[in-house]
């Protein structure tokens, strides 16, 4: 820095003092020409003092107001200005000599950092204000204490419970304000306590108390009221329990009804009738037509209904089965169509969705349709025509996108004749019909079915039965199977309970089957009682020997006769060559 009037004051370079200040200093004379330009000024305005001194200040700092100070003689304090991304604050003052202005001085300081700190502080202040408002408006009561257990914050909700104002509690020890809270213990142990029931004001509240930990040290603690009243919690728990129970009920219902278990390949049978039915199912599955499945009990009607659903484009939708015969008549309507809340005494709150709505986008299987009451038949007819349902007690029609498959073991024409089934409904349902013949009319399927069930029960029982003896099979073949495939399956399952070796023998079959075989033989031959008894005895001995693989001791045991007696009878019937 160079000074215009050099080295006065005993040669001490006093002007150097300006360089040691952490302010930028610019001094001008009466004509606004620069006389002092210190080192910081040089750096800020990127101009050396050598260049600046003697030049009009406006040439070096065009925006400065310093000449105005000379004009007015008035100082300016705390003026902010920006220069190259930095913020400065400056004071400008006139320099006086004997009352007249002989120049002016400007001292500027870089406050960029302070500015950003101030901005941050402002943001924090605003955030604090917002948080305070949130805490005060919060429904839950909240209180914060410092390390000493003195209250630093208590929100309005808590204050209301205590009947005080938040302000009057600040700074007070927590145990004086809320004696029952366990905050002092939490401060001591550093462990949170959640779900305690504590008396606050005039009620038992459920609280949560947790320490505030900073750098591993407990610096305070906070308590929050989770439920103002235990009763509130009880009510909530009851509500949650009720909702869970309801959810379980619906989950169970959906699981029970939604799943269509059987595909076409699960239907066993190679008879012409079964093959043709499978072909029809594949074709019909591509349409939305209503299907009526007819057949005796146990012929596999439900199996075909499942397979039809699985083959159709609705396979990802629900498959809902309704057994019209199993549901009491007075409940069937609400079961099928649902009901509105308050539709009848005992109706669930919120009403209930019916099976038709549950099947939306999928298939509804109306099993035992022949048992549907006439009043409901009329309603079902409307659903078939309009594709919409009405919940019980609710006149608002609801569109449903459902494919209907109905099944019956009854002769519907006969029922129509007796006035028990609507003819118009029969024709609406019978758009496509599948007639499943009884097992006795397709005995060629018997072998496959037997093998299938033997395999199934081997898996279920963990056994290794390889098959059925020819005698036993003959008995099955001769039987008329009134219960069809279901009955056959039951017979095989029963055999698994009694079979000992790897083959199912006649005596493993139920007695009625064994007797059925014999009585048919006997009736055909028109024998005398004596010969009938002999035949029965011979048959029993043969079966016992077959079952025991010729072991006479075991066979005698099975028949409940002595070994000697068995030998005698073997000889009598000429069986000694065979066994
Ligand atoms: N072709 C088949 N292949 C394999 N299992 C079959 C067959 N037909 C029937 N079943 C079995 O027989 C039992 C009865 O079948 P399903 O319930 O489908 O008969 P249904 O005709 O609907 O009887 P119902 O009229 O009594 O309701 C089931 O266990 C089923 O798995």
Automatic annotation (TrEMBL):
User: What are the GO MF terms of this UniProt record?
Assistant: ATP binding; sequence-specific DNA binding
Q: Where is the PAS domain?
A: 127-172
InterPro entries in alphabetical order: AAA+_ATPase, AAA_lid_NorR, Homeodomain-like_sf, HTH_Fis, P-loop_NTPase, PAS, PAS-like_dom_sf, PAS_4
What sequence ranges are listed for the domain Sigma-54 factor interaction?
267-497
Matches recorded under PROSITE patterns: PAS, SIGMA54_INTERACT_1, SIGMA54_INTERACT_2, SIGMA54_INTERACT_3, SIGMA54_INTERACT_4
The record's Gene Ontology biological-process terms are: regulation of DNA-templated transcription
Keyword Oxidoreductase recorded? no
Top-level division of the source organism's lineage: Bacteria
Q: Which Gene3D superfamilies match?
A: 1.10.8.60, Homeodomain-like, P-loop containing nucleotide triphosphate hydrolases, PAS domain
Q: What is this protein called?
A: Uncharacterized protein
